[in-house]
Specification:
The protein is an alpha+beta fold and 640 residues long. It has helices spanning 2-19, 66-87, 104-117, 143-148, 159-182, 184-187, 191-194, 205-213, 217-255, 269-280, 296-308, 313-330, 371-378, 381-399, 427-443, 458-467, 473-476, 487-491, 622-639, and strands spanning 29-34, 45-50, 57-58, 93-96, 136-139, 283-284, 287-288, 348-353, 359-364, 412-417, 448-454, 479-482, 522-526, 530-538, 543-552, 556-564, 572-580, 584-590, 594-602, 608-618. Helix content is 41%, strand content 19%. Helix 9 (217-255) packs across helix 11. The strands form six sheets. It has a five-stranded mixed β-sheet with strand order 8-9-10-11-12. Strand 8 and strand 9 (359-364) form a beta hairpin. It folds into four domains: 2-148, P-loop containing nucleotide triphosphate hydrolases (Rossmann fold, 3-Layer(aba) Sandwich), CATH 3.40.50; 224-330, no CATH class; 334-495, Phosphatidylinositol Transfer Protein Sec14p (3-Layer(aba) Sandwich); 516-624, Jelly Rolls (Sandwich). One of its GO terms (cellular component) is membrane. Residues 337-512 form the CRAL-TRIO domain. It is found in: Cytoplasm; Membrane.
């Protein structure tokens, strides 16, 4: 908050310097506000600016002209950057084409402003207004920046040299073709043999690159792919060798009765024989570990430990031994039968699979915002240990959904939803989350394909950075984060819309009577500031049409109507224009042919993706059913 308070108190005078001109010497006005002062870390910051020639603008409304908004937005970004630099100075800034969206007038303003802040003087002597010592490297294509720069570094292609090389190549190719007509032996030579070397035995890196550039497609592909294929084959040999070595070590440790530690020499021979026999039957995740048993899942399990340790056999073997010892001490084989609290059942649920068939596990932390539940779950050391054991229990349940065989799905996807979750002051939850991550990394290697964290607040990113030092590099790469505005877009990269729960922007509903995951959704793109219509035809009367629709990113308006084919019939408005904020489903009984027309209006500056599906079913109207019943009743009365 110190940084925010400093920027908020200084941003106006910096913004005035950046926007002032001869006609408007006072410049504009700008300030910051917290959207929620009571809980600032779970909400945003509102940027408000009033340039010198315009009415005031709130950035998060996006109701101004696009190009003008870009100018103001860039000016405001520079202001925030410079004001933050006064609070916490940096050695220098790299500004990469920050002027791309600005016109010449605004480019000159920004260049002059940066120039005025980078005059001679040490950074420790910098004044309160960000005076001297503002050092920057600017990547730009605009002359205004060239004129204001202290030094210029040019990066360009040597077009003349490349043109000469290409001309030489064309000439050599023509000479080669002429020679091939006279001598068939010459035609058998490769293009590299035909190309003369005018520079003797010396060649630069650029010459070598030029040779590759002018090779024919087949030779160019061979030059690229052959080393990569050889490298891949060599890598596979190393991995197979590592797997074979680990198999031998595990076999020897099981047969020698030392997989779980040194055997006790003080026990009787009968007890020792019994222990050996038990060890030969040892399994992990339902898969026998003794390689000589020939189970197809043994190699899959061993490969998981090898991958976790980058195919270092000794480290993978020790990791396997530690996992087996931990499972014995933690009694994981009994954990599925335990009752660990009904309060936690709604926090985790399984829902379908991703695009590659991995089971999806959703964890929701929002309920922990309720103080009573939080206290019941984390109020004592015993409760916290029970929560950790509950997490292990749920992991064991997830393993039952996996298939450790060739071609089977042997890992899962974890999706953590932090919407309405407790803040960073809940230290018990943060501590247990870190312990859970380490425990899963050490004892369930490579069983989690992806860790997707959605609705992540800013404080969580900081906490994850601090926690990541406990994680391996391979585990870190499995994390994917999504801010609240990008939740649906991120999840759709991994999950089909038909299998994504409706609360996350998908089309999947529990116990859906209308649609199944096999009912595929159609896709439609709606460009920025345009309107699109989706038409669902009704081939004949007497049909009931059911449809549902969702929009990635929302922020669109939505209208439904039935348009009959008969020009003499009236249109029927099914849904008046409204703002769409969730997945919608509707149905309509059509007594005549026509079409359902869904109008989507996208008023934002971004393209929107629409996902929808529909189905029709023959329906007997209620009034016909009732009239038939009435006629049947009347007939019985007459007969009586």
């Amino acid at each position: 908050m110190d940084a925010f308070n400093h920027i908020s108190s200084n941003i106006d005078k910096i913004y005035k310097q950046l926007t002032k001109s001869n006609t408007h010497p006072l410049g504009g006005t700008a300030y910051l506000n917290l959207e929620n002062e009571d809980d600032p870390f779970l909400h945003g910051i509102k940027y408000t600016a009033m340039p010198q020639q315009s009415a005031f603008v709130i950035w998060n409304n996006y109701l101004v002209e696009k190009k003008l908004l870009q100018h103001w937005h860039y000016s405001f970004r520079y202001t925030v950057t410079i004001t933050h630099d006064i609070f916490r100075p940096s050695p220098f800034f790299i500004l990469d084409e920050v002027d791309a969206a600005l016109d010449n007038l605004n480019v000159a303003k920004v260049a002059g402003f940066i120039r005025s802040k980078s005059r001679e003087g040490a950074r420790e002597n910098q004044d309160d207004d960000g005076g001297s010592g503002f050092q920057s490297i600017v990547i730009s294509l605009k002359d205004s920046f060239y004129d204001k720069a202290d030094a210029l570094v040019g990066v360009y292609r040597d077009c003349e040299r490349r043109t000469q090389k290409r001309s030489d190549h064309v000439r050599e190719k023509e000479e080669s073709q002429s020679s091939q007509e006279d001598d068939q032996e010459e035609s058998k030579k490769s293009p590299r043999e035909q190309k003369p070397n005018n520079s003797g035995n010396e060649s630069t890196q650029e010459d070598e690159e030029s040779d590759i550039e002018f090779l024919g497609p087949a030779i160019y592909q061979e030059a690229e792919t052959t080393p990569s294929v050889e490298l891949k084959q060599s890598d596979n040999k190393k991995k197979n060798k590592a797997l074979l070595e680990l198999r031998c070590r595990v076999e020897d440790a099981i047969v020698g009765n030392y997989l779980l530690g040194k055997p006790n020499k003080m026990i009787s021979p009968a007890e020792s024989a019994r222990q050996r026999e038990e060890l030969r039957e040892i399994s992990l995740w339902g898969v026998p570990l003794l390689p000589s048993k020939g189970h197809q899942g043994t190699d899959i399990v061993l490969l998981k430990f090898l991958r976790a340790k980058d195919f270092k056999v000794l480290e993978a073997f020790e990791m396997l031994r530690r996992t087996l010892k931990w499972r014995k001490e933690y009694r994981t084989d009994e954990i599925l039968e335990e009752e660990l609290g009904s309060d936690l059942e709604n926090l985790v649920f399984w829902s379908s699979v991703d695009k590659e068939g991995h089971p999806l596990c959703f964890t929701v932390y929002g309920p922990f915002k309720e103080r009573e539940l939080y206290k019941r779950t984390f109020g004592s050391k015993e409760k916290r240990q029970q929560f950790l054991r509950w997490r292990v229990q749920f992991m064991e349940k997830g393993i039952k959904k996996l298939s450790f065989k060739k071609g089977g799905v042997d890992s899962m996807v974890h999706i953590t939803d932090l919407k309405n979750s407790p803040g960073p002051d809940m230290k018990e939850l943060r501590s247990l989350s870190s312990k859970t991550l380490v425990l899963l990394q050490e004892n369930y290697p490579e069983l989690i394909q992806k860790n997707i964290v959605i609705n992540a607040p800013l404080w969580y990113y900081v906490a994850h950075v601090l926690r990541s030092r406990l994680l391996s590099q391979r585990t870190k790469k499995k994390f994917v984060f999504a801010r609240p505005s990008n939740v649906t877009k991120t999840l759709l990269k991994f999950v089909d819309p038909e299998k994504l729960p409706v609360q996350y922007g998908g089309l999947k509903r529990e116990q859906d009577p209308e649609f199944t995951p096999e009912d595929k959704a159609s896709r439609r793109s709606v460009k920025a500031n345009t309107t699109a219509c989706i038409e669902i035809p009704v081939a004949e009367g007497g049909l009931t049409l059911v449809w549902e629709l969702t929009v990635v990113g929302w922020d669109v308006s939505y209208k439904e109507e039935f348009v009959p084919d008969d020009e003499g019939s009236y249109k029927i408005l099914l849904q008046n224009k409204k703002r769409l904020g969730q997945c919608v489903r509707n149905s309509f009984y059509a007594n005549e042919p026509g079409k359902i027309v869904i109008t989507i209006e996208n008023w934002t500056f971004k393209n929107k993706r629409v996902l929808y599906r529909s189905k029709s079913k023959l329906t007997v109207p209620v009034y016909r059913f009732l009239s038939r019943q009435t006629m049947a009743t009347g007939a019985r009365l007459v007969a009586t």
